[in-house]
Amino acid sequence: MLNRRASRQQAFEFIFEKSFNGNEPEDIFRNAGEARDAEISDYATKLLRGVSDHLGEIDGYISAYSIKRNIRRLSKVVLAALRLAIYEIIYIDDLDPTISINEAVELTKKFSGSDESGYVNGVLGGFLKAYKAGNIIPPQKDSAEGEDK
User: Fold this and answer.
1) Can you tell me whether residue 81 is helix, strand or coil?
2) Helices and strands, counts by H and E, the chain
């Protein structure tokens, strides 16, 4: 059985994979089981399904709080880390949001070839501050297809 950190990394990898192929969660789970003989944790399953179900909303928040970069210009690693953390902050009640942010930063450091972790930390820090204050910027429709900032 995977611990929560390992499950989160597994979910991160699934979210990263989905950003390339757009597959449904069940297809990703099946492929992981067949190709990698992976033990898929319940928490990773919950995270991938949740991110998939709320992708438009989550990407809207990323667009709103990613001040210096358009969402279309973010690396797949950064995008996966942000999607995972924002989902956890909003929808996982028994988790301190700072843990989500710290884990997203660590996953970015581990999987990114460049130093994108500070950017991830800044976007998520801004989002969390607004979220806690009840002042989150509403997600924008079709943010991934919108004009460049």
Assistant:
1) helix
2) 7, 0
